[in-house]
Each structure stands twice: as C-alpha cells, then as structure tokens.
Amino acid sequence: MKQIKLYDTTLRDGSQSEGISFSVADKIKIAKELDNFGIHYIEGGWPGSNPKDILFFKKIKEIKLKNARIVAFGSTRRMHKKVEEDLTLKYLLKADTYGIAIFGKSWDLHVKYALRTTLGENLKMIYDSIKYLKNKNKEVIYDAEHFFDGYKDNPDYALRTLKEARRAGADNITLCDTNGGTMPDEMSRIVKRVIREIKIPLGIHTHNDADMAVANSIIAVKNGCSLVQGTINGYGERCGNANLCSIIPALKIKMGINCLSNQQMKKLTEMSRYISEVANVIPHDHQPYVGNSSFTHKAGIHVNAVEKEAKTYEHIEPEKVGNKRRILVSELSGKSNVLFKARELNIDFTKNSQMVENLLKKIKKLEQEGYQFEGAEGSFELLLRKAARKHKKFFDLEGFKVTIEKNSKGKLNSEAIIKVKVKGVQEHTASEGDGPVNALDNALRKALERFYPELKEMSLTDFKVRVINAEGGTEAKVRVLIESQDREGAWNTIGVSENIIEASWQALVDSVEYKLLKEMGEK
Questions:
Q1: Which of 107, 319, 456, 505 has the most C-beta neighbours closer than 10 Å?
Q2: What is the rounded distance in angstroms from the CA atom of residue 466 to the CA atom of residue 446?
Q3: How many alpha carbons fall within 13 Å on the CB side of residue 109?
C-alpha cells in the first residue's frame, strides 16, 4: 500500500492567516496536539525572522514527541553570499531540528523582479544552500516556490531549479502552487512530467485562491507525490492553504492510502476544533468531515431515509472522523425528525401519536412567528419535554422591571428588579449590569443561586439579536439567541418578541431551565 507522509504548516503558514496570532504557548499546545493526532512533520516557523519562533524551537526540544518530526523553515542563501556566512542558514541550524525546509525560486519572473539577480545565480543559491545543510546531516525538504506558475511560463528553467535541488542532495522536493491559481488538469499534467524527470520523492504544497487546494493536493498524490503539506482547517494567507482536515480523510477513507491509523482518524474532528479554539477562530460549521453541520439533517424526507439507511444521505460514517450525526427540527421537519430527537432523550413517542402531530403543528406555528429551533436545540428540548409532560418548573415569575439611566457624564447604567417564587419562597432581588439583559441575567441568578447553587458554574457566552420583519420598523419582532456553557459543554436557547427585553427573558429562562434539567439528570 502506498505510504503518504503528512506535513503540517499551521504554525508557520497558518499563522499568516488574517486574524490569527499564535503565542509561543499556543504553538506548543498545537504542536503537541498535532503529534498526538499522528502528523509526521510539523513546521514550527522561521527561526531568525522573529523572537517568538526562536523561543518555540528552544522550548519544543524539551517536549518528547511520539510521532512528529519538527522542521524549521527558511530561504536559500542570499545573493552572492557564502553559505557559511548566511544568517538565515545559521538560524536554521541553530534551531537544532531534525529536518529543515528551505524555499527557492522556480519562476524566472521572481528571479528577475523579486530577487533582481541572474537565472544562473539563483541556481547556485539553491544548490549551495541544500548542499551545505546536507553536509550538516539534516533532512532537507526543498520547497520549489511558485513552481507551477514558473513551469507554465518557462518549463525548462523551472525544471532546472529542481534538478539543482536533486543534485545537491535534497531528500524531498515539494512543488508549490504558491499563488493558488493552478487548475486540476494543469496539476495532473505538470506533476506527471516532473515525476518522469526528477527521480526523488516529491511533495505538494497548494494554496486555495481558486478553491482548488484540496483537489490539487489529491491529484498530485494520485500522480506520484508522497508528501502532502497543508494546514489544519485550511488556515493560511489570503484564501488559505490546503486543508488537511479534508485531505486526510480523502486519502485514508476514499483512496485507501495508509497515512494514519483508523484510531488516529477518529481524533480528526476533536483535533480540528481544539486548534480552532487555540487560534481563537470560530469553527466553520459547514467544513467537510469535521464541521458541526457535516452530518446534519433537516428535511423530514432526509431524516426518514437516514434512519433506515445512513448511506442515503451520508457519504461516510461520521464516527470514522470523530464527528456525529445531528438532526435539526424546523418548519421543514416531519415526524421522523421529532421521533429521532425524542429517542435521543428517552421520550416514548409513537409515530401515530396525536402528541407528535400536535407538536409538529406547534413547531411550524412558532417558526412562522420567528422562532428558529435549528439554532436553539436547548429551547427545542424543553418544548419537546413540555409536549411529553416531562418538564419540571423550577420557579415562577411574579414580575420584573428593567431601567436604563444615563448620568451627567454620559455613562449608561442598567438595573433589573425581579420577583420570583422558588420552592414556595418569594425572592425579590435587584442587580446592575453592563446592559439591560446582563442586569436581568444577574438579577435572576441572584434570586435562584441560593436554591440552585449549580447555576454559579454556568455562564452566558454569546448573545445575538436579529430583526425578523424589518418592514415593521420599531414595532418589528426580534429574535434573541443566547449561548450558555458550563464545564461539560454549550447550549443555545431562543426568544421572540416585539420587545427585545421580553425576547431576552424567554431565552434566559430556557437557558437556566436547561442547565437545571442537566444537573438533575433529567436529560
């Protein structure tokens, strides 16, 4: 079976993505996660380009990795300089990594206009740098930058640069689609030519500017490349790099190529989301394989079919990549959706039950009014429990008042006063907050925490407001979505009203009740 090595450059290329900035601690965490997952090579950064990367290479040596080899990244020597005196190469060696990746120019356009040197000097820069590093007993991966654009403009020169890298002793030559504009048919044709002429292991490094990075990587492998470079979740400059979270399952599951074990594959979704968290980037729900929506079904016809045979609407078993099937409930739902969710909660509905019919009618009526349960599964679960008469009421509202005051210094102050009855006891509390909803949340918690101390570990993590019928002007309905979380996970709840405070109250109450049901083991 063909062996493929996975080369991750999230810590270097991924960090060039707009909005991402890794600390040294972040980079260490990600490197450990990638190693635990089973990545073969981890490119840690460019030592010498910034103090952060120098410190990373120092600290990573203190950590014993199980699977991965750390690689330092840099460029060939500068023009008309001796390799022994080149600072970039000195820093690469000082990083003391097993492998070194260096890039050089393959496109004569870059040699002339970016480097402003001769084609001959560029060839010498490639040869000298690789030969020098090989003499230092390093595994050397040569990244042929802009190779595909260079080949299309001047194939003879582009191939000469590769031959110099081969002659110098490079262990691998990686072909780079640096501008990300190569089409799959071009990729196939060019890689086949290189394979015929360059008889050493080849790699592929693609960017996603034409949305072809994953496809081009797969095609390159099919045509003989044995090292695949990419980033987790496709992070990278401009439109990103090839997404390893799509490439890996395509290789392993679709093509039967041995790049990771079945057990390692089951960590893919967890690893993707962990790195999103460290990068402080909201996970892309619709990302293939690992996205929250990858195996999510909404239409009643789809749910009905999936229950009978998952292959009807799923191209792989979600468990193979550590993901799971989700069933949404909305105005498109049929009985199958409701029954599926009921079974998840151990609620015994039957398909012909009038209870299910009534619940479906209620869902569709509420969605017509502006509710959207596919984004508020916490509220939907409460609705389901109420329909099945399995809901428990934890408190009764007797009234609340929210005031907003602007003082002489222009500062806004919000205060909420609330009266609730809890376990037969009336609670009357007041609290301030950053805004009216925060004040209301604080007052409600103040009233309930004496009776339900577990609410102290729950926090509101997101608050979204959307106008439903904008044509209504100031009388328009608003939809409020609240995300809450505790030590075990997050859940979403919803409220709809012409009054934003009322809509927020509905969502807050659902959030609190959902948490208390969890704690009582009712879920």
A1: 107
A2: 28
A3: 12
DSSP structure string for 453-489: GGGGG-EEEEEEEEES-GGGGGG--EEEEEEEEETTE
130-151 per-residue burial string, b: 16 or more CB within 10 A, e: under 16 = bbbbbeeebbbbbbbbbbbbbb
- The CATH number of whichever domain residue 428 belongs to comes to 3.30.160.740
Write out pLDDT tens, residues 368-410: 788 877 678 888 888 888 877 777 889 989 999 999 888 777 7
Q: What are 79-120's pLDDT values in tens digits? A: 988 999 999 999 999 999 999 999 999 999 999 999 999 999
Shared domain check, 83 and 14: yes
Task: Assess if residue 505 is contained within a domain.
Answer: no
Q: Are residues 135 and 254 in the same domain?
A: yes
Residue 63, number of CB atoms within 10 A of its CB:
11
What CATH number is associated with residue 79?
Answer: 3.20.20.70
- Number of Cβ within 10 Å of residue 114's Cβ equals 12
- DSSP, collapsed to helix, strand or coil, labels residue 87 as helix
What is the dihedral angle through the alpha carbons of 458, 461, 467, 468, rounded to the nearest 10 degrees?
-60
**CA distance readout (Å), 459 to 334, 418, 484, 491, 503:** 34, 19, 6, 11, 18
Residue 283 and residue 272 in contact, taking contact as beta carbons nearer than 8 Å: yes
Q: What's the total number of domains in the chain?
A: 3
